[in-house]
Amino acid sequence: MNLKRLGVLTSGGDAPGMNAAIRAVVRQASALDIEVYGVYRGFQGLVDQDWRPLSSRNCANILQRGGTILNTARCDAFRVKAVRAQVARDLKAADIDALVVIGGDGSFTGATLLSEEQTIPCIGIPGTIDNDLPGTERTLGFDTALNTAIGAIDRIRDTASAHERLFLVEVMGRSSGMIAVHTAIACGAEAVIYPESATDTYEELVTQLRAGWVRGKRSSIVVVAEGDQQLGNAYAVGERLRQDHDLDLRVVVLGHIQRGGSPSAIDRIWGSLWGAEAVKRLAAGEKGCYLGAQAGDLVSIPLARIHDPRPAPPAVLTDLLPVLGR
Ligand code: ATP
Q: At what angle do helices 18-31 and 265-283 cross, to 10 degrees?
């Protein structure tokens, strides 16, 4: 295929580093004489044909900004085959030959269908703060979100320590404990509750906190992933602890502050690398894959692998938690 024009979109939850990827797509394409159309609000923009040319100048001063200049959205209509078929016809009519899709597993499922069922060449760039995609050790936004959570918990630690209090801090991760476990290690949390843990029980948490108290700890931080099925969210755990043990504890939900903010160096660099590489690979005729990182190297993963089991927090970290939380 002689690639003349490609589209780029961001889909699902926004993640710091998406703008770095968009900028690199546009600038690498410009270097190869390929036109880029920015598609607004993810797959919804494909359905609405809401796309406009993006120039290198449109991408000035966006590298350091969180969010996404293309906006993002969830688009249920895209789950319907007839809608995707119309999108493919519209893309072909607009001479948009290929797409770069920046998003998480849902977005890559959409990209797989567009690529295989509708024969629109697609390459994905992992953009999700959850870091829960198969085959890649990192995704855009994870490093920034971690650093944001860590900064917030450092502040909470000061007041926890001053008042000799227990704090339950809820972090993002509806079905992934990646943010929770990494944050817990980096903040010296006394305990962490996360979805993939087979051993998390309320009794265990109480035992752990009690043991800390006996050893002289007068303040504790417990990190809770928002998606823990067994124990519930931080409010549910806090309520139970309050009722059972009459504890003077506080609950903090970090929420959307974890999504925003200027991307870290790592998210800017990988956004730039993946953005440029996606264009080079599409121009070389590659398609049906998403980019990732393995042992520091840039890798390409077949889009079909998006249905593989999600990576769990690494055992090397989870094994360390009880030791460091003493
Ligand atoms: P995040 O990890 O931040 O949630 P995500 O890409 O997983 O990002 P989703 O909301 O799951 O976010 O998916 C984004 C969009 O991808 C959906 O709104 C929908 O348009 C499309 N999508 C998801 N699943 C499918 C599917 N099975 N078929 C077609 N399109 C889909």
A: 40
Please tell me the distance from the alpha carbon of residue 146 to that of residue 198, in angstroms, as a whole number.
Answer: 23
Q: Relative to the CA of 129, which ligand 1 atom is closest?
A: 3
pTM of the complete model beyond 0.85: yes
248: pLDDT strictly greater than 90: no
142 has pLDDT over 90: yes
- Residue spans of alpha helices (H) in the chain: 18-31, 42-47, 81-93, 105-116, 142-163, 178-187, 202-214, 234-245, 265-283, 315-318, 321-324
Please tell me whether residues 149 and 214 are part of one structural domain.
yes
Ligand 1 within 6 A of 104 CB?
A: yes
Tokens 């998390």, located at residue: 200
One domain, residues 168 and 245: yes
Amino acid 227: pLDDT: 81
Residue with tokens 């120039």: 55
